[in-house]
């Protein structure tokens, strides 16, 4: 059986899948962030508990915020105590076995490519539209990470066809760049734009509720958001032309996102035609941890 561990900023989730992909064990823990030692021990505890509960040999895969650099040190993690630590090496030494580790967006994409919405497609690009904007790429059910461990990090490319009069004033991203895609099409990006245009702090559910009630401000912003998303996805198609794009994260649950999206994308695709399936994730919030489990089995 295969153990997957999804490490987030607030919780660590452990799931064991059998060979059919059925969940036979699940447990959650709070994520310690005050010291690396406590964080590391929490991960060991999650693994130990799963082993004891299942009484079975387990492959192990982890999805983490961030990635390992060429020296094996973790970088770009929002769990700050994890950065610049040889986490994977120490984990393998402690457990005396190989452990597969990649970022959470890659795990999401692998899960959907294996037995989710992307099953049966050769090249799958996974998109997470949540607080941030993650991405991952799988080819024949294998995650592609690249030598810089940043394959799929489309959220930190420049928003295509940016125009200040349409998209608003230039926006600095936490990564140090200007006008990153994430600053516009993530859930927090949508909320930021509403405040920038209309001077009110409104969460995404509130914006969609106003949209459903015919609010003209919400309708105006939603039209802009769909166009920004279309521009960003067209860039992926022009570069990779994947067989399917799978959307996850909180924004992907909005029904109004899908009608007409292909035709909007086609405006920006080379050749002015888009036949790429844009599909909502099948496993929802469970995709990350399921993908971690599949990753461990592949390793």
Automatic annotation (TrEMBL):
Gene3D superfamilies: 3.30.420.40. InterPro entries: ATPase_NBD, ROK, ROK_cs. The keyword RNA-binding does not apply. The keyword Isomerase does not apply. It comes from the Bacteria. Keywords: Carbohydrate metabolism. Pfam families: ROK. This is ROK family protein. It comes from Kluyvera intermedia.
